[in-house]
Design a protein that fits this description.
The chain is α/β, with parallel strands linked by helices and 335 residues long. The chain has eleven helices and 13 strands.
């Protein structure tokens, strides 16, 4: 994959290039590691995508599809068992601990559960200053001024500097999570379900804030969510995940105009459209999602797919790309 690719007719620099990412979690018996590994949970399998500078890439799928594990594996929080993540020409998985620590200020994570990610025993000022202390940025007075400035950026007040996490609402804590990630002025932010636990009105505030900050600070976002309406609003391109694999990828509007993979079609049909007098017909999938302990052979979706044939059971479909940037992994799809 090249460092410069075309997106929407424009040349775009590839900031992050994820290649054949794999993550397996070992499963041990009742005696732990004493008798070795019994099996593996295949959380992420052969995931590849590019993230262009200044864009928002949405990663969508049901719970357990491997979205969050993908984001955490890129950062090394859940070390990958295979593949590569190339950031500005450097392989993140081959960096030493010291090199990775230096790079962490450029790549920040917004956690899904903001309450548990904020130390309840520290005031907000201490929490937000900590990244600056770790990276030895500024003196004590400069760090305090940086915290006051970032609180203003995310729509909070200077007096919030002295409060504890439990004194904030869910929306305010999400703003604090954004503030902690933004205070190091990163180039790339990985947002893991940043609005999933918020009311709809607060969701819109946080999403509008993210879009505003992205424009002003020239941020690149990897936005992980299960909410179709949210990802459509904020993303430039979208990747659809199912059981640890990307099954479809396309620019946002192109994907919504015509989803090609049977799973994407079923996923989109589950979203109610209240602008129509009659509710659209739903595509109901049969059966349950297979266990990642023993994923199906061939296409992972074939156990629930209405188009499944013999080749689907035996051969993994290639994620093929058309001229308009639409990629689909399906044996029965023709560009």
């Amino acid at each position: 994959m090249s460092a410069i690719n075309k997106l929407n007719g424009e040349n775009k620099k590839v900031l992050l290039d994820v290649r054949h990412l794999e993550k397996k979690f070992p499963v041990y018996g009742p005696f732990g590691k004493l008798f070795g590994t019994r099996a593996f949970v295949h959380a992420v399998t052969d995931v590849s995508f590019e993230l262009y500078e200044g864009e928002t890439y949405g990663l969508v799928g049901e719970s357990g599809s491997g979205k969050s594990t993908t984001g955490r594996s890129i950062l090394g929080l859940a070390p990958a068992t295979g593949g590569e993540a190339i950031y500005e020409g450097r392989s993140l998985f081959r960096l030493s601990g010291a090199e990775m620590n230096k790079l962490r200020k450029d790549i920040q994570l917004v956690f899904q559960d903001t309450y548990s990610s904020l130390n309840p025993r520290k005031r907000i000022g201490q929490i937000l200053e900590e990244p600056l202390v770790i990276h030895k940025m500024g003196n004590r007075e400069e760090r305090r001024e940086s915290v006051f400035a970032i609180l203003k950026v995310v729509g909070l007040q200077p007096e919030h500097y002295f409060r504890y996490p439990h004194e904030f609402s869910g929306g305010q804590r999400q703003r604090l999570g954004l503030a902690r990630a933004l205070i190091l002025n990163p180039k790339l932010m990985i947002c893991d379900e940043p609005v999933s636990a918020l009311d709809v009105s607060i969701q819109s505030q946080i999403l509008n804030l993210l879009r505003q900050l992205q424009k002003e600070l020239k941020l690149t976002l990897l936005f992980i969510t299960h909410d179709i309406s949210v990802v459509r609003y904020i993303s430039d391109r979208i990747g659809i995940m199912y059981l640890g694999r990307i099954v479809e990828e396309a620019p946002t509007e192109l994907l919504f105009q015509g989803p090609q993979h049977p799973y994407t079609q079923a996923l989109f049909s589950a979203v109610p459209d209240f602008t129509r007098r009659k509710l659209k017909e739903r595509t109901v999938l049969q059966g349950e999602i297979p266990s990642p302990l023993s994923p199906p052979s061939g296409c992972v979706f074939h156990t629930r797919c209405p188009l499944a044939s013999e080749i689907c059971k035996k051969q993994v479909p290639e994620l093929k790309e058309s001229l308009d940037g639409h990629r689909v992994a399906c044996h029965h799809h023709e560009f």
